Amino acid sequence: AAHAYHAAKSYDEKVRRRFQKMPMIKEMQLLANTLQESEDWKLRRLGVMEVVNRDKFRRNKELREKLDTTMDREIVNEITDENDKEDSLFWGVISDQGQNQLGRIIEKIRRDMREGKELDKWVCASFKLQ
Known about the structure:
The chain is 63% helix and 0% strand. By secondary structure, the protein is mainly α.
């Protein structure tokens, strides 16, 4: 999921292919840190993260089952590596501070699973259908 998320920061197909070919997360993170984000990235990043995570859960039955066991508990993306504190505080929580946007997205996916809407939303997000 991280590879797809970071690849989406660029409109350059060559850059996106480089992310696809990186087997190791450390290599991917190094490339991501050097990447110039597109001008509209901050506007697109929530939608991209939701699409990437919907795809991750849809393709992995074990992850869906694990998510279902969380019941209605809050999902907190606790950040331990503060390389980019602004980004970390947007996606997660550091010392009880942060927006926890990734946790909220995963909770939304869980709610959609419970309501029987997850597959439809995955199809619409993945194939640009409305």
